[in-house]
User: Fold this.
Amino acid sequence: MVLSFIKRILTCTFLFFFGVIFFLMIFRMPTVIFIAYVALASVLVNRIGDRGFIIFIILGSFLIRLAYISIINTPLESDFKLLYDAAVLFSQGDYSFNQQVYFQEWGYQTGFVIYQGMVVRVFGQAGGITALKVLNCFWNTGITLLVYLIARNFFNEKPSRLASVLYSGFVFPITFVSVLSNQHISTFLILLSLYFLIDQRLIRMRRVPRGFIGGFLLALGNIMRPEGLVVVTSLMVYFLVLFFSADKKWRRMERIAQCLVVVLIYLAVNGLASRAIIKSGINDQGLMNNNVYWKFVVGLNYESKGSYNEKDYKLMYESNLSLEEKKELQKELILKRLGINPLKLANLFMLKIQTMWCDSAMDWSYKHILMSNKVVYLFSNPVKFSDIDAVLKDLNELYIYTAIGLSLLGMLTRWKSQMKDGLLIPVTILVISFVIYLFIEVQPRYAYLQQPFMFILSGAGLEILLCRINAFNLKQVWARLWECAKERSEQEHRTKMVK
Assistant:
């Protein structure tokens, strides 16, 4: 009797203390927000029709982002200010910005300057900033919709919807729309190009016309921000697989034709745009990158963990080096930094993986508020903005780790099964990006292009989970638990009777 009482006391104590620990771990504010959001999303995706869902995801995503830029007024700083100032000059017909070292070495930024300059010309210098932020909301809403439209070519309707809704609530892109970055419009155009190339549900076009449109949109995305090469390489892998999997000769020829059209249109549009920029006098460097090694110099700096640092910048740009001397010095630094202890180099890679794929870039949006130690009032209660920042960053990590976890679950499950060929595109883009960013400069915001592909792939994991949940009969589980409890009670009663 005493032994049984002690067992019960210890068991209850264990359940109480570890229950409290579990409660504190799970029911932190970011986790509560995330669980509530996912639960609400799960209900909505089951109750809305196809057309209703598209309206919901467009309006919901756009209004959330519009509300954010209405509340947070992010000031221009760093490269974003330099690019906007150049856009203002362009809108006035003044191309003198092209004499700056920045545009001489990285002429590829000129395309984005022209885009911003055209907006400023319409809305004016003061209204241009607001107009560009609203356009960022539009581009990112388009990205959210494209996550859904692309995902449902590979997965069932519900996991595709959930993947899109998850991206819609992803904190980083919501906050980043207040920053005048070229990543918004570029990523939208790249995703739109891929949608035209792979969609089999809404778009009824032959492969070659698809290739024309896809290649053109991809080129426009690259003109805004030069990340198209990663996508083109991924598409070539995709078309190579399609070529070898085709069972008929005419199908193989069709795949080759589509691949050639995409690549040729992509190269032609980029080349013509660069030549037009030179001919018009906007920038005599066109869309060239005249300092290819710089990203590697910074990316292999162990002290700065592969991120931008003033020491390297001053060494390159404040030492009065000629262009050739600068290139030679950069080559020497790259070889020297690659030649460090292998364990140290591996550690650098691990630090860069953490920075690139897991860290938060939300400071770009509201760093000015954090630095002012501002206190805001929520329901009449004073709250430090630094506390809000901590919640947002934890919530952002939950979204990232959920997307990565679901992607891994889905891909591992499909490892031995037949995976749809189109999934090779997001997989290859992520693999190539992962390898490239081991060697070049990293910032958390550089993952902006790759993140939608992670959420698309999360549809694979969501599909597995939804299948398991549908197969899970809750009534049978409760009945079985009731039977076990009843048997245990009867067994204890018999034991007492024997005693």
